[in-house]
Amino acid sequence: MSQATGADAFVKTRRRYQRLLFLTWFLTLDLIMFGAFVRLTDSGLGCPDWPGCYGSVTPIGALQSIREAAQVMPEGPVTLPKAWIEMIHRYVGALLGMLIIAISWMAWRYRTKLGASPVLAFVTLVAVCIQGAFGAWTVTHQLMPLVVTVHLLGGMTLLALMTWLAARERPHQPVSSWTQRYLGWAYFGLFLLFVQIALGGWVSTNYAALACMDFPTCQGSWWPPMDAANGFALVRGLGEMPNGEMISQTALTAIHWVHRNVAWLVFAFWGWLAWRLRADAALRNPATLVIGLLFAQLLTGLTTIFFQWPLVIAVLHNGGAAGLVLGVVTLLTRLVKAQPQRLSVQSQTHSH
Predict the structure, then answer these.
(1) Both 292 and 145 in a single domain?
(2) Closest Cα partner for 56 from 31, 84, 95, 81?
(3) Core-most of 137, 198, 299, 324, by most CB within 10 Å?
(4) End residue of a domain, out of 170, 185, 218
(5) Which of 126, 148, 170 is the last residue of a domain?
(6) How many independent structural domains does the chain possess?
(7) Domain co-membership, 143 together with 258
């Protein structure tokens, strides 16, 4: 009777932990999408202080200050709708932090029952704290492109960690031994994907999405006039070059052109690798997701150019990048999890 009760308690604990994981993972994905909406609607300075809004918990308490700022600059970054967009993003971010604290506590408290080290959960907790700090710096540094881009990469890293935690809890068929040899390629592919996400973030934070209005050429040329030195200068203000002058069209062109061409490299590499991994039943679903999202990213990227950066498509393009992180990390998690199994089998074979 006691053994049955203990088994029931184990199942309930694990089920609660898994539900908390998947809820937090889903909220992380939503927050990344909403963060893109904040950025693309120019709402990042909707409340130009942090953590409150003109010292208030909600824009309601800051209504007078918001109205005064809007009267001075009617088309400026401070309006009531933008203040609400920014504050909702902060509220959801705070909720996400509390959920990750709960995950870390459960991972430590029930580490024996869960059968997994709590280290990854604590790494995720540190990551969300760092992400919160960059969220504050995004405001206090007046949307400095470097800070905003690192904030975007932090969100993607947080999603990768949450996907790793969640993927460990999902059962799947054993990974075939022949696909495990692609683990190193998958690690390289993850690095390549994050480089491209960083470049995409740099395009977005510098508002360079419309620097090239044609395709496949850019401004009618395969190699248009570009100023990469100023375009990729890291320490500078929004819309500026390091010398304080307004950023040039050639600098924006360099930003856009590099992102566009690295995209082809990512498309070719992950198209090949995902197609190879798709032959393994254990990896088929995430590999198929990666292939589908590659084509979706191509479509939304082209649509952004031809329809002059519509908001919905731009947010979907950002969401597609998040989806690729999700699919790639799931593939990696399953490949990594299969390595100890293979080593165990090899050791048993040699012992006999």
Answers:
(1) no
(2) 84
(3) 324
(4) 170
(5) 170
(6) 2
(7) no
Among residues 68, 75, 86, 169, the one annotated as catalytic is 86
Q: Which residues, at least 6 apart from 246, have a Cβ–Cβ distance to it below 8 Å?
A: 239, 240
What is the domain range of residue 340? 175-352
Average pLDDT per run of 10 along the chain, which is 352 residues long? 60 90 95 90 88 92 89 82 94 96 94 86 96 91 92 96 93 89 96 97 92 90 95 93 93 96 97 97 96 95 81 89 97 85 44 45
Whether 86 is catalytic: yes
Q: How far apart are CA 256 and CA 245, in angstroms?
A: 20
Token readout for 284 is 């088929």
**Integer Cα distance of 265 and 192 in angstroms:** 9
For residues 146 and 179, membership in a common domain is answered with no
Q: How far is CA 30 from CA 180, 201, 215, 309, 332, in A?
A: 32, 17, 31, 21, 22
